[in-house]
Task: inverse folding
């Protein structure tokens, strides 16, 4: 009788340790200091159920913890991308391409809270301007743009999980000079050397090509440490592109539409306003 009870206890123990080994989640400490794994709780019939409010809400708590950890990792990466230059960002992601997935999982989560996605406005704009326009999508992320239009799109980002994406620092792309009709920056002017990205866009744009920029609204709020949008547009005009229109109607982002002109400029003397990092709040 004792031996049978002992055998069944060992079997149960084995089953429990197996689930905890297979779990991907980290082992956490409970308030009482005991290690708690993410494996599901044992069957209630085989365990003395204590009248604790925690026992029911446990999976929710662990799931929340996991989201908090990955959310924290996303915010850290996001801040890094806004406070380093393109070369540093490229080396960071080249050394650990998994960071791209962590970044984009967090990015997509943040975007769910935006009533409108700027990339959808750009898709709409492209559809109304014709599929024959060749596009360069600087900082394409998951290449949403390329997947939603018929145009030829050169998708560019730091990492290419998708073989159609060109992996490089967008300050130096392999695109031919004067080869594209539209250059797009959708929430991607992140590096401290952002003027280099715009300079590269100007290089690859055909004469009369379009430059479309969607950026986080708070980065252009001078009352809140943001850049003066007029100064930003002036700097781009000096680069040799003229502002056709700007759209401040959206709560979360602003849009600028420029066209390349033939005007030559002294690029070195341009005064670029600093664009403050966009730090996402903890949710
Ligand atoms: N445009 C996409 C993704 C925006 S997130 C969309 O609207 O959905 C910003 C993207 O810019 C990220 O994928 C980031 O990896 C990319 N990025 C930032 N700095 C870059 C650089 N120097 N070179 C290439 N891509 C860059």
Result:
């Amino acid at each position: 009788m004792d031996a049978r009870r002992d055998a069944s206890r060992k079997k149960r123990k084995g089953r429990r340790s197996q689930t905890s080994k297979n779990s991907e989640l980290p082992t956490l400490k409970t308030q009482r200091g005991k290690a708690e794994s993410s494996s599901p709780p044992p069957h209630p019939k085989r365990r003395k159920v204590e009248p604790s409010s925690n026992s029911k809400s446990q999976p929710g708590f662990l799931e929340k913890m996991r989201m908090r950890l990955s959310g924290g990792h996303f915010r850290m990466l996001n801040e890094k991308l806004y406070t380093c230059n393109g070369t540093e960002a490229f080396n960071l992601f080249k050394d650990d391409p998994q960071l791209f997935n962590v970044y984009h999982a967090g990015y997509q989560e943040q975007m769910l809270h935006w009533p409108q996605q700027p990339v959808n406005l750009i898709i709409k704009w492209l559809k109304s301007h014709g599929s024959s326009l060749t596009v360069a999508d600087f900082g394409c992320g998951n290449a949403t743009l390329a997947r939603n239009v018929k145009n030829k799109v050169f998708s560019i980002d730091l990492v290419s999980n998708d073989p159609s994406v060109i992996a490089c620092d967008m300050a130096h792309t392999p695109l031919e000079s004067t080869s594209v009709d539209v250059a797009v920056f959708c929430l991607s002017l992140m590096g401290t050397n952002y003027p280099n990205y715009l300079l590269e866009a100007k290089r690859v744009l055909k004469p009369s090509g379009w430059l479309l920029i969607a950026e986080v609204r708070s980065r252009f709020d001078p009352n809140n440490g943001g850049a003066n949008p007029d100064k930003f547009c002036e700097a781009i005009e000096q680069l040799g592109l003229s502002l056709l229109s700007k759209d401040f109607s959206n709560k979360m982002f602003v849009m600028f539409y420029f066209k390349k002109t033939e005007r030559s400029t002294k690029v070195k003397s341009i005064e670029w306003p600093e664009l403050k990092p966009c730090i996402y709040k903890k949710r």
